[in-house]
Automatic annotation (TrEMBL):
Gene3D superfamilies: Periplasmic binding protein-like II (3.40.190.10). Keywords: Cell inner membrane, Cell membrane, Membrane, Signal, Transport. PANTHER family: ALIPHATIC SULFONATES-BINDING PROTEIN-RELATED, TAURINE-BINDING PERIPLASMIC PROTEIN. It comes from Streptomyces cremeus. This is Aliphatic sulfonate ABC transporter substrate-binding protein. Belongs to the bacterial solute-binding protein SsuA/TauA family. It is found in: Cell inner membrane; Periplasm. Residues 1-29 form the signal peptide.
Length: 372
């Protein structure tokens, strides 16, 4: 399948918004160093031969249930085992733009991240900074509302609905949904028939409890936190997608690192594939592992009621679901946040398909958006 020709021009809105977001987030540093492992469990040790003589691989991810593959794979030592004597160095991020900035600066080599930051970063660099090399998760996003104020999807007009960040994956999804329902909203200010409020995931539950917002379109575990606070799931985003599958987390890599250290990239991908097999075969152990890593990274673990709901709504996957990334890019265009985003060559799934073939699994498709 031949990839569609796309241009590099971005809308003025997106060009203005993204640098501001990056500057604001980057002012606090790229991300936090992962904390030392819980003394109850020894940290995985790098032992054996270094892959290609490489001392370390710098890995980024979010302390978020939609990054379950990264959390469990790191906690269980699966990635370190695949890397043998090459040590893993981790950084935890709160937002996509700061992770993209870290990738561009060489502060990380590989990262787990959402589709919108991947598209933004690739387009902004004119296709020079990253490749998506694998999938990681599908689903795990819901519209949760105060049922005293909103009883159906027809009640959204005049209400205040939060998303985690201007232009992030959930923000784009909400704007697209509202547009399809005939609601007019200014993508940059969030003002319109429905007011879109951009807040950090950490702040949204308190805003919901105080009544400052009427609902939120958010990933897990924030959605589960809102349900725990009395909210009602009005819409599970997977219901809007074919076969109820859509990409929520990708694995990206610096093009420079991919070229220089292909064996290390394959090792991470092999670790990802094997972690996903382990998660599916051991759901209870996987939940405990994810929670242990969340506690290590954030200082707090999730209550069982929140963890159970969040974990159940996320599907780990090796498939990047490339066709849905193309759709999400078009949603951003419709919302006015992007104009003709660059997608051609954003994927390089050759290393992943090599790993999948060796593991006896079917290859995955780049939907015509792969590197030539």
């Amino acid at each position: 399948m031949t990839a569609p020709r796309t241009t590099l021009r971005r809308s003025l809105a997106a060009a203005a918004a993204l640098p501001l977001l990056i500057a604001a987030l980057g002012a606090c540093g790229y991300g936090s160093q992962a904390k030392k492992d819980d003394p109850g469990k020894a940290a995985p040790v790098a032992k054996g031969e270094k892959i290609g003589g490489l001392d370390e691989v710098k890995v980024g991810y979010f302390a978020n249930v939609t990054h379950a593959t990264a959390l469990a794979g790191l906690q269980e030592g699966i990635f370190q085992k695949e890397l043998a004597g090459t040590r893993i160095k981790t950084q935890v991020f709160n937002a996509g733009p700061s992770e993209i900035e870290a990738l561009n600066a060489g502060a990380i080599d590989i990262g787990w991240i959402g589709p919108s930051p991947s598209i933004n970063g690739y387009t902004k660099s004119k296709g020079q900074n990253l490749r998506i090399v694998g999938g990681s998760a599908s689903g795990g996003v819901s519209l949760v509302v105060n049922s005293d104020k909103i009883t159906s999807l027809d009640d959204l007009k005049g209400k205040r609905i939060a998303t985690p960040q201007l232009g992030n994956t959930q923000d784009v999804a909400l704007l697209n949904y509202l547009s399809e329902k005939g609601h007019k909203v200014d993508a940059n200010t969030g003002k319109g028939d429905v007011t879109v409020v951009r807040q950090d995931n950490k702040e949204i539950p308190n805003s919901f409890k105080s009544g400052a917002i009427d609902g939120a379109w958010v990933p897990e575990p924030t959605a589960a936190r809102l349900v725990d606070a009395g909210g009602k799931v009005l819409l599970d985003e997977k219901k809007l997608w074919k076969d109820e599958k859509f990409v929520i987390t990708n694995i990206i890599v610096s093009q420079k690192f991919l070229t220089a250290h292909p064996a290390a990239v394959e090792a991470i991908l092999r670790g990802s594939v094997r972690t996903n097999v382990w998660i599916k075969a051991n759901p209870d152990k996987a939940k405990a592992s994810v929670n242990a890593r969340l506690k290590q990274d954030s200082g707090k673990e999730l209550p069982a009621s929140i963890l159970d709901r969040a974990f159940a709504s996320v599907d780990v996957t090796d498939d990047p679901l490339a066709a849905t990334l193309r759709d999400e890019a078009q949603h951003a265009v419709k919302a006015g946040l992007l104009k003709d985003p660059l997608l051609e060559g954003i994927y390089d799934l050759r290393p992943l398909n090599k790993v999948l073939q060796a593991e006896g699994k079917p290859e995955v498709s780049d939907a015509g958006l792969g590197v030539k």
